[in-house]
Design goal:
This protein has 264 residues and is α/β, with parallel strands linked by helices. The chain has 2 domains: 30-122, membrane protein fhac (Ubiquitin-like (UB roll), Roll); 127-263, Cell division protein FtsQ/DivIB (Rossmann fold), CATH 3.40.50.11690. The protein has 5 helices and 15 strands. It has helices at residues 21-42, 61-72, 89-99, 174-190, 225-238, and strands spanning 50-54, 74-75, 80-81, 103-111, 115-122, 127-131, 134-138, 143-147, 155-158, 169-170, 195-201, 206-211, 216-220, 248-255, 258-263. It has a 10-stranded mixed β-sheet with strand order 10-8-7-6-9-11-12-13-14-15, covered by helices on one side. The radius of gyration is 35 Å and the shape is elongated.
């Protein structure tokens, strides 16, 4: 008869998590992170207490402060915060430039522990953009930004008046606007032609300058504006004297060195 032997099993007791070094290391790590985060986000030390506004701008400083202040308030389930660490400079920049079309750019800077500095750069008018009785200031970027009743300065207008005007919108390409300004400067510097207004057409690629005497000049902005301006001065000096200008209808410079003009 065979003898049966009983197998003996050793029961291992599970080690308590509370005795685990790894557990306590992670616990301490999370405790430190939590404490630092709470201090950074909710401590009064890092709560924004002052918003400074600098720069040459017509907009009242309190209006900009109110707008910025609305963006720094953060609501959490258990608390509110104005922590300097939670401020999104990008969001504030976007909101301010959308709310105030007169502002071209703002620079935001955190000054620790509790100051937010806002430096404002305002758009500068270089011309007026007019259509259907309304005029807006136009800056060098081709953006209209503020309605005006001013009758002074260079006046631009589209041939097609169907588009709606809205402050803060780029109404003309910067490249073509720069060429228009160059043409106007050359005409005013090298001739006695007064510019009444400039009509923009063909997606701002061509312009019609209305002179103070009533006749007009056609330019192609995709071609050399210096060459076209030089051709204008030559034809006015050699072919169309001042005495004949009152009967002049137009001078067309859009076809290279082939210059066309017509009397009424």
């Amino acid at each position: 008869m065979r003898k049966r032997y009983k197998k003996f099993y050793r029961i291992r007791r599970k080690k308590s998590v509370l005795r685990s070094r790894i557990f306590w290391r992670f616990f301490l790590l999370f405790a430190v992170i939590g404490s630092v985060s709470y201090f950074a986000f909710f401590s009064s030390f890092f709560q924004i207490k002052e918003i400074t506004i600098s720069g040459d701008v017509k907009i009242p400083a309190y209006e900009i402060k109110d707008s910025v202040g609305a963006e720094i308030d953060k609501d959490f389930v258990f608390a509110k915060s104005k922590s300097i660490f939670l401020v999104s400079l990008e969001e504030i920049n976007k909101k301010i430039t959308e709310q105030f079309p007169q502002i071209a750019k703002i620079s935001l800077k955190r000054i620790f522990p509790d100051v937010l500095a806002v430096d404002v750069i305002q758009r500068k008018p270089i011309a007026n953009w007019c259509q259907e009785g309304s005029c807006f200031y136009l800056d060098q970027e081709g953006v209209i930004f503020e309605e005006t009743q001013s009758k002074t300065g260079l006046r631009l207008m589209p041939e097609d008046n169907s588009a709606e005007l809205e402050a803060g919108v780029q109404i003309i390409d910067k490249k073509y606007l720069s060429r228009i300004l160059d043409i106007a400067k050359q005409i005013e510097s090298h001739s006695d032609i007064g510019i009444k207004e400039i009509v923009v057409f063909d997606e701002a690629r061509k312009i019609k300058i209305i002179s103070a005497e009533g006749w007009h000049i056609l330019f192609d902005l995709d071609e050399s504006v210096s060459t076209q301006a030089s051709n204008l001065f030559v034809v006015l000096e050699e072919t169309i004297p001042v005495s004949k200008r009152k009967n002049l209808d137009y001078v067309d410079l859009r076809f290279g060195n082939r210059i066309y003009w017509k009397y009424k």
